[in-house]
Write a structure and sequence with these properties.
The complex is a heterodimer. Chain A is 77% helix and 2% strand. By secondary structure, chain A is an all-alpha fold. Chain A has a two-stranded antiparallel ribbon. The chains are: A mainly alpha, B mainly alpha.
C-alpha cells in the first residue's frame, strides 16, 4: 500500500509540474503586461526599469524557474491591478465563493434527494414526471441563461430580490460573511439557486435511480412483510442505502462547482474568486490568472489523488494492477 | 454498422416517441431558418450603413426607419433582433457543429487507437484522458479561450480540446470490446495494415455509442460557446453568436428592456433542449440493455 501511495504521489507531483509549465507558458503568451502596468505616456526609462524589475527581459525558461522557486516559497507574486500579494487577494475573495458554493450544494442535496426518491418511488405519477422534466432542463439549459431568467423574474418584474452584489456582511473570525445577515441572505438566494440547479438535477437522477433499484430489493420486501410503514422504509432504509453514491458525488461535485461559480458570480456580480478570474483575464492580470489556475489544478489533483487512495483502500485489485 | 433495413426500423421506433419527433422537427426547422437567414431576415444585421441609431432599443412591434415592423424589437445599435437572431443561429450552429465533428474525429481516433495497440500507448493516452476528464469542461474551455484569444477558430479549438476526451473514452470502451473479436484477428492475418483495421473494421463497429455522445456534445458545444461569448471570451463582435446577443442585452434588462436578451435566449434554449431530447431518444434506442 505504501508503495502505491508513493507512486501515485509522485505521479500527481509530475502532473502538477507539467500543468505549471503549461499554465506559465500559456499565460505568458497573452498580451504584454507592461501595457497593463504602465500608463501609455511612461518614459522609455521607466519602461526599461519596470521590465527589469519584473524580470521580463530574462529568457522564458529562466522566468519559469524563478517562478517555480517563488512558488516553492509560497510566493505567487503581486497582482498588477490591485497591487497586493495574489494569495492575499484570492483568500480575501474565497469566503464569498465558499458560502455561495456551500449554499448551492447543500440546497441541491436537501431538495434534490427527497424529490428524486419520490420520483423513484412513484415513477409514473404526474409529480414525478414534472420533477424529471425540471431535472432535464437543469442539465441542458446553460447556467448563465437560468441566471438571466432569475434576475429578470425576481429582480426586474417582481422586484422582490436584488439583482447582484453581496449585500450586508457581518464579520466573524475576521472574515466577512453574507450568511449572517438577513440582507445578505436575500442577496445570496438567487445566485445560490442558479448555481444549484445543475447539482439539483444530478441529485434527483442519482436518488431516483438508486430508489428504483432498492425498492425492488429483498430489504424492502422483508420490511414490508414486517409491517413497517412505507415512510419508515423510505426514510430509514432506502435513504441509508442510496447515501453512499450521493455522498461520493457530493464530495466530488464540490470541486466542480468552483468552476461553475465563475459563470454565476459574473452574472450576479458576486465578488468571489470566479469573478476575480474573469476580471483578471480581461485586464491581463497575469499573476492572478496563474495563481488561480495553479490553485484549481492543485485542488482537482488533490481530489483525484484522494479518490485513487480511497479506491485502492477499498479494492485491492487496483493496487496490484497499477503497481 | 446500421444497414438500410435496420435504418427503417430505427426510424419506425424513433417516430413512436412523439416528443422526440417534435424535437427533431424543431431542430430541423431551426437549422433551416438559420440556413435561409440571408433570404428571410428583414435586414442584414452586419450592414452597419443600414442601421439607424434612432431605432435603438425599441420594443417588439415597433416600425422603424426601414419601413418594416421589428417583430422582436431592436438592440442597442438599432439592429432588428429577429434578423440578428437568425444570423446568430448560423454562427452558433456552425461553431457547435464544426467543434463537435473535429472532437469526434480526434477523440474517436485516439480512443480506438489506444484500444487497438494496448500496452504503454493505451496506458499513456487513457491516463491523460482520465486526467483531463477530471477537470470540468467549462473550466478548460474558459482557460483556453482566454489564452488563445478571440476568434472563431480559437473558440473552436478551445471547444474541441474541452470535448474530445468524452469521445475518446467512449471509443476506447467500445473498441476494447471489439479488439479481441475474431474478425479483427482475421483482418490482421491477411495481413491488412493496422490503420485500415482500426478505421475500416473496428471504428465502424463502435459507431452506435459515439453517435449518442455526438448529439449530446453538439448541444454542449453550442451551450459552451454561448457561455464563453456571454462572459466576453467567445467570438469577436463582428460575428455575434446568440451568446453575445444575450450578453449585449444583459445591461439593458435591469431597466426593463427584456427583449434584447430574452429572445436570443429563447432561440438558444429551443435549439439546445431539442437536440438533447433527440439525443435522449437515440440513446434509448441504441442502448442494448433497453432493447426489446
Amino acid at each position: 500500500m505504501l508503495g502505491f501511495v508513493i507512486q501515485r504521489f509522485l505521479q500527481a507531483l509530475v502532473v502538477m509540474l507539467i500543468i505549471s509549465l503549461l499554465v506559465f507558458c500559456g499565460v505568458y503568451a497573452v498580451g504584454n503586461p507592461i501595457d497593463v502596468l504602465l500608463s501609455p505616456d511612461a518614459t522609455q526609462q521607466i519602461r526599461e526599469a519596470t521590465i527589469k524589475a519584473y524580470g521580463f527581459d530574462q529568457p522564458l525558461w529562466r522566468q519559469y524557474f524563478d517562478f517555480l522557486g517563488r512558488l516553492g516559497r509560497g510566493d505567487f507574486g503581486r497582482s498588477f491591478v490591485f497591487n497586493m500579494p495574489v494569495l492575499e487577494l484570492i483568500f480575501s475573495r474565497l469566503p464569498a465563493t465558499l458560502e455561495l458554493t456551500l449554499a448551492a450544494v447543500i440546497g441541491a442535496t436537501v431538495l434534490g434527494v427527497p424529490l428524486g426518491m419520490y420520483a423513484g418511488y412513484r415513477p409514473d405519477s404526474l409529480v414525478s414526471k414534472t420533477i424529471m422534466a425540471v431535472s432535464i432542463l437543469g442539465f441542458s439549459v446553460p447556467t448563465f441563461w437560468i441566471g438571466l431568467v432569475l434576475i429578470f423574474t425576481f429582480a426586474v418584474i417582481l422586484g422582490v430580490l436584488p439583482a447582484g452584489g453581496r449585500g450586508e456582511t457581518m464579520r466573524l473570525f475576521g472574515i466577512e460573511w453574507s450568511i449572517l445577515t438577513a440582507n445578505g441572505w436575500k442577496h445570496l438566494l438567487l445566485p445560490a439557486l442558479n448555481l444549484s440547479l445543475f447539482k439539483f438535477a444530478m441529485m434527483v437522477r442519482l436518488a431516483r435511480a438508486g430508489t428504483r433499484e432498492i425498492m425492488l430489493s429483498d430489504t424492502v420486501k422483508f420490511a414490508r412483510a414486517a409491517g413497517i410503514s412505507e415512510w419508515t422504509i423510505l426514510s430509514r432504509h432506502v435513504l441509508r442505502l442510496i447515501a453512499v453514491p450521493i455522498v461520493t458525488v457530493f464530495g466530488l461535485e464540490f470541486g466542480a462547482t468552483l468552476a461553475f461559480a465563475v459563470v454565476t458570480e459574473t452574472i450576479f456580480s458576486w465578488p468571489g474568486i470566479g469573478k476575480l478570474i474573469i476580471d483578471s483575464i480581461s485586464s491581463l492580470d497575469r499573476p492572478v490568472m496563474v495563481a488561480y489556475l495553479m490553485l484549481v489544478a492543485f485542488l482537482f489533483i488533490a481530489i483525484n489523488f484522494l479518490v485513487d487512495l480511497a479506491y485502492a483502500a477499498l479494492d485491492p485489485r487496483v493496487r496490484v494492477r497499477s503497481a | 454498422m446500421v444497414l438500410p433495413e435496420n435504418l427503417v426500423r430505427f426510424w419506425r421506433d424513433f417516430t413512436e416517441n412523439r416528443v422526440a419527433v417534435v424535437a427533431l422537427a424543431t431542430v430541423g426547422l431551426i437549422v433551416l431558418l438559420a440556413l435561409a437567414a440571408p433570404l428571410i431576415a428583414p435586414q442584414n444585421p452586419y450592414d452597419l450603413a443600414r442601421l439607424v441609431l434612432a431605432d435603438a432599443r425599441r420594443p417588439p412591434g415597433y416600425i422603424g426607419a426601414g419601413g418594416f415592423t421589428h417583430w422582436l424589437g431592436t438592440d442597442a445599435q438599432g439592429r432588428d433582433l429577429l434578423s440578428a437572431i437568425l444570423y446568430g443561429l448560423r454562427i452558433s450552429i456552425q461553431v457547435g457543429l464544426i467543434a463537435g465533428v473535429v472532437a469526434f474525429i480526434l477523440g474517436a481516433s485516439l480512443g480506438t487507437m489506444a484500444a487497438f495497440f494496448g500496452g504503454r500507448t493505451e496506458a499513456f493516452i487513457m491516463r491523460f484522458i482520465d486526467l483531463q476528464l477530471s477537470f470540468p469542461a467549462i473550466l478548460l474551455a474558459l482557460v483556453l479561450a482566454a489564452l488563445l484569444g478571440q476568434g472563431k477558430w480559437q473558440i473552436i479549438a478551445a471547444l474541441v480540446t474541452a470535448q474530445y476526451a468524452y469521445f475518446a473514452r467512449t471509443a476506447h470502451g467500445a473498441a476494447s470490446a471489439e479488439r479481441p473479436k475474431e474478425y479483427v484477428a482475421a483482418a490482421l492475418s491477411i495481413p491488412l495494415p493496422s490503420s485500415r483495421v482500426i478505421f475500416r473494421h473496428i471504428l465502424p463497429n463502435c459507431m452506435a455509442p459515439l453517435i449518442v455522445v455526438a448529439t449530446v456534445q453538439v448541444a454542449n458545444s453550442i451551450a459552451l460557446e454561448a457561455t464563453l461569448s456571454f462572459l466576453g471570451l467567445g467570438l469577436p463582435v463582428t460575428e455575434p453568436s446568440l451568446g453575445m446577443l444575450i450578453a449585449n442585452g444583459f445591461q439593458y434588462m435591469l431597466s426593463g428592456r427584456y427583449w434584447i436578451s430574452i429572445y436570443p435566449g429563447v432561440a438558444l434554449i429551443f435549439l439546445i433542449v431539442a437536440i438533447n431530447l433527440v439525443g435522449d431518444q437515440v440513446r434509448d434506442q441504441l442502448n442494448p440493455r433497453l432493447q426489446r
